[in-house]
Each structure stands twice: as structure tokens, then as C-alpha cells.
Design a protein that fits this description.
Blueprint (H helix, E strand, L loop, with lengths): L2 H9 L8 H9 L4 E4 L6 H11 L3 E5 L3 H13 L4 E3 L6 H12 L5 E4 L1 H5 L5 H6 L3 E6 L22 H4 L5 E5 L4 H11 L5 E4 L7 E7 L3 H9 L6 E5 L3 H13 L4 E4 L5 H12 L5 E4 L12 E6 L6 H8 L9 E7 L1 H11 L5 H18 L5 H8 L12 H4 E7 L1 H13 L6 H8 L9 H4 L12 H13 L3 E3 L7 E3 L3 H5 L6 E7 L12 H18 L3 H4 L2 H10 L4 H4 L7 H22 L25 H4 L2 H11 L4 H8 L3 H13 L14 H11 L4 H8 L5 H23 L1
Parallel strand pairs: 1-6, 1-7, 2-4, 2-5, 3-4, 5-6, 8-13, 9-11, 9-12, 10-11, 12-13
Antiparallel strand pairs: 14-17, 15-16
The structure holds adenosine-5'-diphosphate and zinc ion.
Length: 728
Amino acid sequence: MTPLQALQKYFGYSEFRLQQEDIINNILNKRDVLALMPTGGGKSLCYQLPAVLLDGLTIVISPLIALMKDQVDSLNVAGIPAAFYNSAQSLDEQSQVISKLNNNQIKLLYLAPERLFGTESKLISFLKTLPVVQIAIDEAHCISQWGHDFRPEYLMLAGLKKKFPDVPVIALTATADKLTQKDILDKLALHNPAVFVSSFNRANITYRVLPKRNSFDQLLDFLDNRRDESGIIYCLSRKSTEALAADLKAEGYLAEAYHAGLDNATKACNQEAFLRDDVKIVVATIAFGMGINKSNVRYVVHMDMPKNIEGYYQETGRAGRDGLPSGALLFFSPGDAIKLKEFAKVNDNPEQTQIMLNKLNDMVHYCQLPTCRRKFLLNYFDEQAPDNCGACDVCLSEFTRFDGTLIAQKALSAVSRLNQRFGSGYVIDFLRGSSSEKIREEHKQLKTYGVGADISKADWMRYLRELVALGYLQITEDIYPVLKLTEKSNPVLKGEQKVELIASQIIEEREKIELPFDTALLDLIKNTRRNMAQLENVPAYIIVSDATLVEIATYLPQSLNELRLISGFGDIKLARYGREFLATVNNYCKQHGFVSKMDQKSRKRERKSRVSKSDMPATMRSNDTRLVSFELFRSGKNINEIAAERSLSPTTIEGHLSHFVQTGELDVLALVAEAKIPAIKDAIESYGADRLAPLKEVLSDNYTYGEIKAVVAWMSVESRNKSQDKTK
Ligand code: ADP
Ligand code: ZN
């Protein structure tokens, strides 16, 4: 059997993701491998598939017992014999595993590192009597002190290669910084390893950061239309997880807390309820999640800023493992950053402390970005990315720049008049002429008092942040941060330097699953799945993923042969669960007079050429998102249809298409009615094309941003052509 055949047969997938195939081939050729892939990228498959193909036992080292159970359940459901061996089992269960191992009845054995190399462990000599063909080390970064998640027991794995010199070892991690990477290779003493670094882009996650104000209300806003979806909400302290879970319950949400201080029974119970969708929201400290493979987590919220980008990326990565659109939201307040500084100190280790502080600074920087968040994250992991991802709050906002010199002057002179001794809250109240008693009497006499009353508090907050980001102001790093001037302030105050600010008009959109699927049927097959899961005593997503159900509800397969073409149905799952799903679908279709739409489903093999962004090398990906929209447009879809299909806003799609007007590949008339062009052109010629907002204002509501953008693009072609004519 080839790897590809095994992929279809056991896992029900028709193509490999990222570098899975290469990785697998290396293992099959007995070469050591280090594989770096983002969370949700599909690491498990890289050793599970060789485990199925190879004749013998695969040992999987994994740090958490919870993870083992989940993985073993899903392997068994797919018809692959797997087991774990750990201290949570009874002696009876343990000896059952041993006897199965002796009879070669197990393909994958999951172990914690301390089990393997613990002082009185005889396990290793026992394992040496078995035909071990592969060793997989999951979460391999835990071996590195440079990483953010060092686990001393992982150091025991250093002796592994000596014990099993001829067995290929595959080390896997979602943490990719170079130092950690090198450390893993050194400590594990891998032989001539093949190293694979996949793209870390998680294209289906939309990143958002909101300034923390009244975070509970902000959270309720966010949750309002996500009531039926699963999510993880991270808090910094144990106490706040419990308080927030209680508050959410009071609002009618199915929420539970999870942190390391709870007793084991409560932890297990809350986790289990979450996996089984009986609890929708887990409010947790970072103790929760490593090892949670629940694939239908639709959002991850950080109520407080995480300590570093690595942690943040891993935590947000727990959203959307099934590939469906998902969200990551972070509430940021500069005060949190200061609190975290205290935690970053590592006793008696200035070097380690500095590493932690630098990581913290990167995190703060991320929260205050005026540019694409995804680009920052990918660059952080040494990966190229386009400037605009179309799926982070920055890219989803329509930015227009305007001359903010006057605003800047007001802010800077307020800071100066207040002798650079007050924080942004006070400065804003002062600027707005607040009559509050908090404002000192002598300040109320100053000329600058109240000069910014025409601007809202929220806007002032934004402007101040921007002025800081642009270097015209700075914030001290005290417990009570204070605004101060910089060397760039003076020229602005003297009127020698102009300042551009951003007026943002947020086009909020919610990540939706935009396939035209039948929601009523989806609910029905979810029920079918729930019943099966209860019978098998596993979480529902282990039977098949949400993405698989969405495909069924979209294409309405009517026979086992059609169902086989739905992603996620391997042979065993098809045999075990296929008929029951089909019964539900058949019934529903009969009732409503629907027929199969499988012919609309592009053949699985052909799907590669389409959207699959992450499959392309980073260098090719940069313009790809625009190209995808363009291809869809050329195939006859209109802007709204493309927006729906791609879960992007129509404005974003218009932006994509305008690009091709500019390159000359698309006629402007495809986007704008001919009759509208003269007026837009006129406006552009009078007001310039730098800022769209004033153009939109003079043109009124009959003209969309998209149309204006398209004409701007077209006119730039025209002028380019003209200037070329001139040079001829
Ligand atoms: P990781 O361990 O890297 O965080 P997982 O191994 O849990 O990610 O995989 C995430 C999800 O992607 C799982 O639901 C898995 O079944 C699915 N998956 C893995 N490989 C493929 C593939 N080639 N095609 C489709 N889905 C895949
Ligand atoms: Zn972006």
C-alpha cells in the first residue's frame, strides 16, 4: 500500500497537507526527522501513517495523559489499534496493554517520558524485546530550556537514540524559533536528521486585538452570536477564571472553569464535558489546552495578554483545527504588560530573565500594531508574508489617512502643559475639558484645557496610541505609566512637522462557514453523530469532524460510494458509521425532494489547484489571495458570491479585483458601470487619490468604495500608459 492509499483508507483524506508526504517518506526510509508545523497543521498524521504502514510498534512520547487518551480514541475509531500506558491506569489495565504488546496487537503505544526512563522503570528493557519501528516525540520543544515550555523530564529522552540506534526518531513541535530547533536536534542526538519547517500560517483564523475597556461587556458582544459554538477563554489568574465562568453562567452560557488548582476529578469532568460539547466554553489558565485536540473549537479569547508570542500562537492555534473559519480575540491593556514584567523575572538567572522580557516586549508590540497581525506573527517565525492578509482586524479595517497635525499638536501641548507627569486617562479628560473633580483646579485654568472636546474618548485613546507608535510621544514603563514628549515632539509643536493619522472605519465581519449548506440537515446529522459518540463513549468530533458534517450537509451524498468522496471517511469509518449518516440524509432529502449534489463537488484530487493557500511555498503565496478572488470572478461569480465563498467581506474582494484593474488584466468596466466613471474620475482629479473617504463623501452613497478603488486603479494605468507614450 502506498502512503496515499493508506491516507484514504485509514484517515479518509485524499491528499497530504504541507510537507506530510515528504516527512512520511523520510521515516519510511528510516531517517530521523524534525518536523515543525503549526498547531492544527496535522503533525500526528506524520507518524500515525508510517505506524500503519510499518510492520511493528511505534512508540509515541507525549507529555500529557489527556492528549494520549484523545489520540488513542480517535485511532481506535479509525480502526487502528493503539493504546497508552500510564500511571492513571489500574494495574489490570496496564497488564492488558502489556499482553497486547507481547502479541503484536498494538500499532501505536503512547507514553509519558518519565514512564520510559523513570529510575525504577523496567519498561525500556521490555520495549527493547519488541519490534519497535518508529519513535515519535511529540511537543519536542519541551526538551529545550530556550523554549517557553521546558519540561525537565524531557531531558531524559537524551539517551533514547543510544537505546534504539536503528529506529528512526521523529521529533514534532509547533514551536519554531531557531534556538529551540537547534537545541532539540542536539539534545535528542538525532542522526543526520531531515528538518521540515512548514508554513506557520493558519489561514482559517482571523486575529483581532481590542483595547481592554469593560472587558466583560466586550466579551458578551463577541459571544452574542456564537452561543452554540465551542470556545476557550484564557485568563491569567485562577481566581479570574472562576469568576468569569460564574459570570458567563449567569448570562446563560454553558461555561466552566479550568485551572491547575482544581482537584483532578473536577478538571477531568470539565474537560470531558467540553470535549463532548456539553460545556461550550472553558474559561481557563494556560494549564488548559496542551493536548486538547478538539477540532471544532471556533474561537479562542485572551482576556489578558499572554507572556510571549509562542504561547499566544499555540493557544490561538487551538481554534479551527478542522480548517473551518475561526476567531482569535485578545483584550489588551498596557497595564497588563507591566504586571507581566514582574512574572518574567527568573530567579538568579539574568540571562533567562532577559530572554523572557524580550519575548514580552514582542508580545506588546504585536498588540499595538498598526499593520497586519498575521504578517507580524509569520515574520516572527521567520516566514515571509504579504502585507495584507484580509483576515485580521487591521486588514479588515478600511483605513484612511488624514492630516492629524492639529490633533497631534493638541495632544503634545497637553502633555507638555501637564509637565509630562500624567497618564493617558488624565490627559484625555483634560483635553476634553472634563469637569470631573479628578482634574486639578490649576489645570482647569490652562489654555489647553478642553481644546479636544470635539473628539470622543475612544478616538483620543486611539490617537494617543498612534502618536506613541509613531514616536511623537512615549509611555513610561512604571506601574502608573505617564505620557512624555520625545525628541520628535518639538517640530510638531512648532508646526514644522506634519503628522498623518489614521481614521479607521472598521468593517467588522464575522467568520462564517460560508458553504451553502443546509443548516437543518446539519443539526440532524450532528444528532446522529452525538448518538454514535455516546454509544462509543468518545467525544463527537472523534467520530468525524465538523468539517466533514458540513461537507455532507452541502453535497447530500446518497450512497456509500458518494459518502466515500466526503473528506474524513476512511474505510473503517465508512463501514462503521456510513449507513447511519446516510439514513439521516436520505430521509431528509426524501422529505424535501432534494437530490445529491455530489456532482458539484470538485473531485477530491483536483481540489489542490484551488484555494489551498497553505500548500504553496511562502514565496508563491504572497499574491495568491488576490488571485483566488480573480479566478473566481473570471469563472463567472459576482463579488458577493466570492465574498461568501471565501468568508471575506465584499470590500476586501473589491480590493483584490482592483489590483487586476491596475495590472491591466481586468477591464474597469467589469467592476464599475460606465455611466458612473466620469463622476468618480472628476472627484479623483479634484481631490487626489490618496484618501478614499473624502472622495466617498463628495460622491455620495450611490458610489461604493469598491467602485472608487477600481477607478483609482484604472486611472493609474491610464497615467502610466500616457507617461510611456511620452517617453516613446
Ligand atoms: P497538530 O498535532 O499539528 O496540532 P493534528 O494532527 O491534530 O494537528 O491535525 C489537525 C486536524 O487536521 C485533525 O483533525 C486531522 O485529522 C486533520 N488532518 C491531518 N492531516 C490531514 C490531511 N492530509 N487532510 C485533511 N485533514 C487532515
Ligand atoms: Zn492582516
